[in-house]
Automatic annotation (TrEMBL):
Keyword set includes Hydrolase: yes
Top-rank lineage group of the source organism: Eukaryota
Function: Alpha-L-arabinofuranosidase involved in the degradation of arabinoxylan, a major component of plant hemicellulose. Acts only on small linear 1,5-alpha-linked L-arabinofuranosyl oligosaccharides.
Record family assignment: Belongs to the glycosyl hydrolase 51 family.
Catalysed transformations (reactions): Hydrolysis of terminal non-reducing alpha-L-arabinofuranoside residues in alpha-L-arabinosides
Molecular function in Gene Ontology: alpha-L-arabinofuranosidase activity
Pathway stated in the Swiss-Prot or TrEMBL entry: Glycan metabolism; L-arabinan degradation
Domain Alpha-L-arabinofuranosidase C-terminal per the UniProt entry, residue ranges: 302-492
Any one biological process term the GO annotation gives: arabinan catabolic process
Protein name per the record: non-reducing end alpha-L-arabinofuranosidase
Organism, as annotated: Thyridium curvatum
Keyword annotations: Carbohydrate metabolism, Glycosidase, Hydrolase
Enzyme Commission identifier(s): 3.2.1.55
């Protein structure tokens, strides 16, 4: 949590941080990813057989190498909207016998050349050499899918007995169970774009029954309820009906605005959404008399990002060309997650390759977009515990996206958006995003200790981009002796790291 006092612009900002004020554990799962059968995410992104950069499985090795830098803990699959008409059995077994099907979320053709076994193999490749594997997180089809089909999928992945689908997996060459722990009860079932959209009442009834059956089959799974944006009557109702049957509550938010200040402050709406969802969870647990011994029901923010479908390219309006403004918005998103870590069990940037993604592929290689850099620094260093800090600075008090945000930000959005963490070795990391387009800000930092490692992300303009032949935004590293004031240049994210 970060507290904030507004001062008049012109006075010296002050940031106070105390390495002893540990607030809550940061779950490493907040740095999760998401790969959907959508646009060029799977086909032409992670799976590209015949490309010289691909291995014998058809996996792009340049993509795997790049993504390893992010140390991703978990990846959600196979959708998204795609999952509402997906039949997992189409995507297993000999490739030449897999059916091609019309796909109704993005109106393409699904060849099923990449399915559950390929996904699991790809995660193995991604996690190679790491202590902990990359966890799979599978979303169940609660559109055209049946409970029988969902149970069969869990059995295929996790079954250890001499049973039909466990044996099918064995016949497909995988003796050991995949041990998939994380399962989502549908995706955005409330959305009018969804095949088999449901009312909150119908969804809650069904999710309750599915959860019961899935747990009878495998008591070790972690079940994620399909929420909306954390603030709606859908969230309220489904939590009330199902809180005792699930482990996490999913919410989705994408932010974007044409002008920089609305774009960069929009992720603060997600902070409010997390607080609102956490309150709804508390109410649902109290109303249902969920025993306090049952672990907290945490939020699974399993789709988040900056996304403006109007400006994005590609058939699905999802190939974003991210700007410096977007990179700073992603930094504010991640500051929000660190500040609200107490409520979060997982978060997944949507998505991991090509589709609204920090990483883009061409036939010849990969490009790290502007948003790659904040994600990389957070995933590397903002781990351990959230630290309490206090920021005194001026604030932006103009229009916001969404408009209601202006009403809840009583003191405005601070020009310096801050979060801080301390890891188990006592290393403090503090991120300061100067959202201003015009003013460099000097701040007194209380609680800092030299020597300080400095990582700085900026670029020439708010609309600077990283494309194949032009890299305008990157990380610059330096050292600071901690004396005097720190300078946070306009349009920048700075990470300061020191040993406490
Ligand atoms: O991530 C892209 C799409 O956005 C997902 O398929 C859907 O769940 C959301 O609306």
């Amino acid at each position: 949590m970060t507290t904030f006092t507004r001062i008049d612009d012109g006075e010296t900002p002050v940031i106070e941080v105390d390495a002893l004020k540990k607030l809550s554990k940061i779950d490493p799962m907040i740095y999760g990813g998401f790969t959907e059968h959508m646009g060029r995410c799977i086909y032409g992104g992670i799976y590209d057989p015949g490309n010289p950069l691909s291995d014998e499985n058809g996996f792009r090795t340049d993509v795997i190498k790049a993504l390893r830098e992010l140390n991703i803990p978990v990846i959600r699959y196979p959708g998204g909207n795609f999952v509402a008409t997906y039949h997992w059995l189409d995507g297993v077994g000999p490739r030449d016998q897999r059916p091609s099907r019309p796909e109704l979320a993005w109106l393409g053709t699904e060849t099923n050349q990449f399915g559950t076994d390929e996904f699991m193999r790809w995660l193995d490749a991604l996690g190679e050499g790491r202590e902990q594997r990359v966890e799979p997180y599978i979303c169940l089809n609660m559109g055209t899918g049946t409970l029988d089909e969902a149970l069969a999928w869990v059995e295929y992945c996790n079954g250890t007995r001499d049973t039909h689908y466990a044996n099918l997996r064995r016949r497909h060459g995988r003796e050991e169970p995949y041990r998939v722990r994380y399962w989502a009860l549908g995706n955005e079932v409330w959305g009018p774009w969804q095949v088999e959209q449901a009312t909150k009442e119908d969804y809650a009834r069904k999710a309750f029954q599915w959860a019961k059956a899935l747990r009878l089959l495998d008591p070790d799974i972690v079940l994620v309820l399909c929420g909306q944006d954390g603030t709606s009557s859908w969230d309220h109702h489904v939590l009330h009906e199902c809180v005792g049957s699930v482990d996490m509550h999913s919410i989705h938010i994408y932010t974007a605005a044409k002008d920089h200040l609305r774009n960069v402050t929009a992720p603060l709406s997600a902070e409010r959404a997390i607080q609102a969802a956490a309150a709804l969870i508390d109410v649902a647990r109290i109303e249902n008399k969920v025993p306090p011994s049952k672990p907290p029901t945490r939020i699974c923010f399993d789709e988040w990002n900056v996304w403006d479908p109007e400006r994005a390219r590609g058939d699905e309006g999802a190939e974003e060309r991210y700007t410096l403004s977007d990179a700073l918005a992603v930094a504010v998103w991640l500051n929000v997650f660190v500040r609200q870590s107490r409520h979060l069990g997982m978060a997944n940037i949507a998505q991991t390759v090509n589709v609204i993604s920090p990483l883009m592929t061409s036939r010849d290689g990969v490009t790290r977009q502007t948003t790659w850099w904040p994600l990389l620094l957070f995933s590397k260093y903002m781990r351990g515990w959230t630290l309490g800090c206090h920021v005194r600075c001026g604030s932006y008090r103009g229009e916001t996206q969404p408009a209601w945000l202006q009403g809840v930000l009583e003191e405005g959005a601070p020009w310096l958006d801050v979060s801080a963490s301390v890891d188990d070795g006592g290393m403090v990391s503090m991120v300061v995003v100067n959202i201003s387009e015009t003013q460099d800000l000097e701040a007194e930092i209380r609680g800092i200790k030299a020597p300080v490692k400095v990582y700085h992300i900026t670029g020439p303009r708010a609309d600077s981009v990283n494309v194949e032949d032009k890299q305008e935004v990157a990380v610059e590293k330096s050292q600071w002796n901690g004396e005097g004031k720190a300078v946070f240049t306009k349009l920048s994210m700075t990470m300061l790291r020191w040993q406490s």
